[in-house]
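Entry — protein

Goal — fold tokens:
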Amino acid sequence: MIPFFDFKSELKEIRPQLEQAFARVFDRGYFILGPELDEFEQKFASYIGSGYAIGTANGTDAIEIALRACGIGQGDEVITAPNTAVPTVSAITATGAVPVFADIKADTYLIDPKSIEQSITAKTKAIIPVHLYGQCSDMDTINAIAAENNIIVIEDCAQAHGAMYKGKKAGSFGAVSAFSFYPTKNLGGYGDGGMIIANNHKIAQICRQLRNYGFVDRYKTVRNGLNSRLDEIQCAFLIVKLDYLDKYNEKRNELAEYYTERLSDISGLELPKIADERSHVFHLYVISTDKRDNLQDYLAQLGVGTLIHYPIPIHLQQAYGYLGYKKGQFPNAEKSCSRILSLPLYPSLARSSQDIVIESIRKFFNA
């Protein structure tokens, strides 16, 4: 059996450091908004190359708080991609704003700036480009469109920890950005967690207030906030794992290159494309084929785990039917959702296991 994701090998390497971090938190007896959070926020902001980092309970809250801190609310329109995960959009609706979709580019699966321009109205207040699968969106073009139309850019970096665009890291391009530390992320904790990155001091200050009931001190609140705090134990674990992030991303790239080398000659199978002037951190290695469902079933029978990220575009989800979108409005997104399949890829994936995945795919295609 080759699982889609496996923690066990990773834990073997870093378990002693994790246990020390765990003990440190308990010895201090400080579990919420304490020194571990302060240290992790500082280290993560430095890693991204930004001024401020604000820990949150999860990545969805990070997006919602970022939107609210930027003044996005009832009736405002926020443009994003329809092939993203549901949390991107649920964060938008949590503010009272209206999600508006723009189609994606067929080759990279990232939001298409031309479609963004076509989606802008007088009510558009923000754009959320999603750095899907581990690769940055076309941030120069998106930022230029936003500046021309006086629109805020908020990056969804949940799948792009450490990804680069023209020499800068994901999370350093928008007015604000949001990260998730869900366990399967490139930088994942052992529970939920999220982070907001901001360069503007005032926005950062508002985000800090919003994540903790709007408090400015223990019993004084100045705005309607949330309970969304990244706890000390997760911060302690993430401090350890941040030191391994670049190493693990390099390993993901090695695994991705190996897949690409050995699958590139198969007719009818499309492999990930890395756009110019970008680095990919391969949160996911996503292939595309018209035979997706049959291939997934075949691999499952051989004990190879795969997943689909994501099978139903948001504009066709029942929960968002009230937005009035119809099938066919975003052809690239809809086509990709019907063809994509994510293969096992994580830093501890053994070469022997990867060879089994590759040979199984080749047999399916008689290649």
In short: The radius of gyration is 21 Å. The longest strand covers residues 52-56.
